[in-house]
């Protein structure tokens, strides 16, 4: 059992997984998310400041929803966040397409380099004659 302080209200609660906020604050955050989502549905071209002011939700919280990928905005919306790697303007997520591709490629290369030496040890080339199935010669055993 893990007991922690909620990052929002500072009360103690039993932590299970995910963000370190208590169930009451999680419920409140879901209500805030719904207000933001509903406002953006009715006002798709609103700026982040307008959304924040109209819904009484902090700009940092709105950015958090965008980073999580829970909130997706229209391409023509003035709202946006920055790519965590290069700083380019993006609409949702943590990275722009180019940086996401580069990160994926780098992880794949690192993974392959870790698997490389292991593969060479387990799949060594062997003589094909040694890998064939051998049968017991019945005539030899009976002494014929």
What's the structural blueprint in terms of helices and strands?
Blueprint: E1 2-5, E2 12-15, H1 23-42, H2 48-55, H3 59-68, E3 81-82, E4 89-90, H4 97-122, H5 128-131, H6 138-142
Antiparallel strand pairs: 1-2, 3-4
Helix pairs in contact: 1-2
Walk me through this protein's architecture.
This is MerR family transcriptional regulator. The chain has a two-stranded antiparallel ribbon with strand order 1-2. The chain has a two-stranded antiparallel ribbon with strand order 3-4. It has 144 residues and is mainly alpha-helical. Residues 119-123 have low confidence and may be disordered. The protein has 6 helices and 4 strands. It has helices spanning 23-42, 48-55, 59-68, 97-122, 128-131, 138-142, and strands at residues 2-5, 12-15, 81-82, 89-90. Helix 1 packs across helix 2 (48-55).
């Amino acid at each position: 059992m893990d007991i922690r302080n909620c990052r929002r209200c500072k009360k103690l609660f039993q932590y299970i997984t995910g963000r370190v906020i208590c169930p009451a604050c999680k419920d409140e955050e879901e209500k805030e998310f719904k207000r933001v989502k509903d406002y953006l549905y009715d006002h798709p071209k609103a700026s982040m400041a307008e959304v924040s002011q109209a819904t009484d939700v902090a700009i940092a919280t709105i950015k958090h929803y965008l980073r999580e990928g829970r909130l997706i905005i229209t391409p023509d919306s003035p709202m946006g966040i920055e790519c965590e790697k290069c700083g380019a303007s993006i609409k949702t997520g943590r990275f722009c397409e180019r940086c996401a591709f580069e990160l994926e490629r780098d992880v794949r290369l690192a993974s392959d380099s870790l698997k490389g030496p292991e593969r060479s040890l387990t799949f060594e080339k062997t003589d094909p004659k040694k890998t064939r199935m051998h049968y017991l010669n019945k005539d030899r055993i009976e002494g014929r």
